[in-house]
Write a structure and sequence with these properties.
Layout lengths: L2 E10 L2 E11 L4 E6 L5 H8 L7 E6 L2 E3 L4 H6 L2 E4 L11 H7 L13 H15 L14 H14 L4 E5 L7 H16 L3 E5 L3 H7 L2 E6 L2 E6 L5 H9 L17 E11 L5 E11 L3 E5 L6 H9 L6 E6 L2 E2 L5 H6 L2 E4 L3 H5 L6 H4 L11 E2 L2 E2 L1 H15 L15 H12 L6 E5 L7 H16 L3 E5 L3 H7 L2 E6 L2 E7 L4 H8 L4 H9 L1
Parallel strand pairs: 3-8, 3-9, 6-7, 7-8, 13-20, 13-21, 16-19, 19-20
Antiparallel strand pairs: 1-2, 1-4, 4-5, 9-10, 11-12, 11-14, 14-15, 17-18, 21-22
This protein binds adenosine-5'-triphosphate.
GO molecular function: ATP binding; ATP hydrolysis activity
Subcellular location: Cell membrane
Membrane topology: Peripheral membrane protein
């Protein structure tokens, strides 16, 4: 099916999120939408999926105008969307989830039974190379597999156009490769895909056509064989440094020391095993590893969201293991969480309020029990300008910001005060290339003022670009700590559990 968006305009108050956007998607095409944070990509997709009514413009399918009064209409017209935050029920099986995917309230669908869904999952898995067991429980699946369930759900509703809004943000590199292979298979079978991502190498790897949006307008089309630098320039409107420029570190005394730290979860599974780590003031320690090897729990233990089962945590020589989160924050710990919606923001608060969550009790922002509104507002406006947070008004709810701009709010808040220790987990997730450059430079600057930085990232490029030393985690243990210039191949072997010496020997052969 051929899809056309013609002159789509969508306003939020005085903000024009989409300004007369034209977009054509041919059958079987992988069409990448590229644009900075807040450019209007998600808004456009929400219009296409019937979630927003456009103020102007129309959607055409095979040349005929259509009107969607909600996602049910879009689905009936053959449009499917896989959201970043899946809405699957943990205790259901894969087949049950797919069966549930039908919208029984809509006349276009009957409810299919679980048996049919079971067959469908098997068929789709075989046809497109999905690795999905219809009987598996959702809660036992990796994020990548859960995403495949969402894709099967969309296909089971006969989607001919599939919208993937930043599908790789939550995937491991291996899962990303699998998803890209699946996208190619789907496109070869005639499904069109609208693909949103900030990762330029993915765009280069799969896109047949690339449309670039800036501040709500289409600025042009980029050739699929454009270099990353060319794509970045077109997106941001200036040239972007894709490499981090930094001086060698000047490490000071040990800021963070972990000794024999172990963590056994409620199901008696050992998640962290005898972690010993030291991070000095003025250095960035990167933690590399395939997601799910204990990194998340480690960062949560550092902040105080979880208690270790055994072991000690010292900050500047003082044990903080018994200190609650609030106290650790007051003691100079900054935290950029991997799950920004759950741990990073308070959804019902404004942008300005979210920007002082870690400091609202300080005399700068409050007097006794009352907040100083002017100071909170001024702080927000300063950080907005400094961190280039794109928004219309700092008093608006944080949920009206685009995903990448919400991330920038968290980064700005955590870096707006003097820190002893910064724990940054996936700090540039969902952030555009221009802002990645900025955030990377800020992290280096933070280091250079003497902060100890623990960086967790599933992007090996990011770990290598920023770290002074790299600790590799595998199944809850530190496999080894290596210098930043360690080759990718050695890191890759260590991430698969190969001990450091052995990995280095293999590399030397
Ligand atoms: N419900 C809303 N109310 C007010 N403004 C909104 C709302 N939703 C989006 N916006 C604004 O519309 C603009 C476009 O946002 P959108 O989410 O479409 O950007 P995006 O290109 O998807 O960005 P990102 O790459 O960060 O996800 C932003 O300025 C955003 O703040």
């Amino acid at each position: 099916m051929k899809l056309e968006l013609v002159g789509i305009t969508k306003k939020f108050g005085s903000l024009i999120a989409n300004d007369h956007i034209d977009l054509e998607v041919e059958p079987g095409q992988i069409h990448a939408l590229l644009g900075e944070n807040g450019a209007g990509k998600s808004t456009l997709m929400n219009v296409l999926y019937g979630l927003y009514d456009p103020d102007e413009g129309e959607i055409r399918i095979d040349g005929k105008p259509v009107r969607f009064n909600g996602p049910g209409d879009a689905v009936a017209a053959g449009i499917g969307m896989v959201h970043q935050h899946f809405m699957l029920v943990p205790v259901f099986t894969v087949a049950e989830s797919v069966a549930l995917g039908y919208e029984p309230t809509h006349p276009a669908f009957g409810i299919i039974n679980v048996k049919e869904a079971h067959r469908l999952v098997e068929d789709v898995s075989k046809r497109f190379g999905f690795d999905l067991d219809p009987k598996a429980k959702i809660e036992d699946l990796t994020v990548g597999a859960q995403q495949r369930v969402e894709i099967v759900k969309a296909l089971s509703r006969k989607a001919e156009v599939l919208i993937l809004d930043e599908p790789t943000a939550v995937l491991t590199p291996a899962e990303t490769d699998e998803l890209m292979a699946i996208m190619r298979e789907l496109a070869a079978a005639g499904t069109s895909i609208v693909f949103i991502t900030h990762k330029l190498r993915e765009v280069r790897a799969v896109a047949d056509k690339i449309t670039v949006i800036r501040r709500g307008k289409v600025v042009g089309e980029a050739a699929p064989d454009s270099t990353e630098a060319e794509l970045a320039t077109m997106m941001v409107g200036r040239s972007v440094m894709l490499k981090v420029d930094k001086e060698p570190p000047a490490p000071g005394p040990v800021t963070l020391a972990l000794q024999n730290l172990s963590y056994v979860n409620d199901d008696q599974v050992t998640i962290l095993e005898r972690i010993n780590l030291e991070v000095q003031a003025g250095e960035i320690l990167g933690i590399a590893g395939v997601q799910g090897n204990g990194q998340t729990e480690l960062t949560e233990i550092l902040l105080g969201l979880r208690q270790p089962t055994t072991g000690t945590i010292e900050l500047d020589g003082e044990s903080i293991v018994k200190h609650p989160v609030r106290r650790r924050v007051d003691e100079g710990l900054g935290f950029i969480p991997e799950d920004r919606i759950r741990d990073g923001i308070v959804s019902k608060f404004s942008v300005a309020e979210n920007l002082v969550l870690n400091q609202y009790r300080s005399s700068k922002f409050s007097r006794g029990l009352s907040i100083k509104p002017k100071a909170v507002l001024e702080n927000a406006e300063t950080l907005r300008d400094e961190f280039d947070i794109r928004l219309s008004d700092v008093t608006n709810p944080i949920t009206t910001l685009s995903g990448g701009n919400q991330q920038k709010v968290i980064v700005a808040r955590e870096m707006s005060r003097h820190l002893k220790l910064l724990v940054a987990s996936q700090p540039t997730r969902g952030v555009d290339v221009g802002s990645i450059e900025f955030i990377h430079n800020r992290i280096v600057k933070e280091r250079d003022t003497g902060t100890a930085v623990v960086l967790v990232s599933s992007e090996l490029d990011e770990i290598q670009a920023l770290s002074d030393r790299i600790a590799v985690m595998y199944r809850g243990r530190i496999v080894g700590i290596v210098p930043a210039h360690t080759p990718n191949s050695v890191l890759g072997l260590m991430m698969a559990g190969v001990p450091m010496e052995e990995a280095m020997q293999k590399e030397a052969q």
